[in-house]
Amino acid sequence: MFDPSPYLPDSLHYGAFATDERAIEGLPVRLVIAFVVGVATLSVMLSMVSGVNTLGVSELDAKPSPDVVTPGDQTIDVTAVDADGDPVSGATVVVKAGTADVDGVATATTGDDGVATLDVAPELGPNQAEGTLKISLKPPAGTEYVDRRENTAVLVVAD
């Protein structure tokens, strides 16, 4: 059988790895250095991302007035407001049936004061004491507004 040990350098002889303790000492130090450098790099990258303002959006909310109506012809003023409570002009307000019925869908656009006026005729079903109309908002084009959360509903109560 061929024995390669005379042809190998001393560091590669069989059994040389079993007695070499340098790799065991050097490995943890290298891991600690890599971990520290990685954490520092990650913190720098996160601070750069959090400083970008283009990712911010403002949630729109609808404030109906009145928020409680009776069945039949009604006029509802809906104010579109941003997260700070300031009125938003140019938003499209949509009122549709929830648990109360309404004929079709009513839409209007908010004016400079953030208010849209809608005419609706809600109806309740037989033996139904109350129901709701759903309100959704379409933000003005070219703005950073969104409407992801559920808005205040209009409560319809029987006379």
TrEMBL record:
Residues 55-119 form the DUF7382 domain. It comes from the Archaea. Keywords: Membrane, Transmembrane, Transmembrane helix. Gene3D superfamilies: Immunoglobulins. It holds the Pfam family DUF7382. InterPro entries: DUF7382, Ig-like_fold. This is Ig-like domain-containing protein. It comes from Halobacterium litoreum.
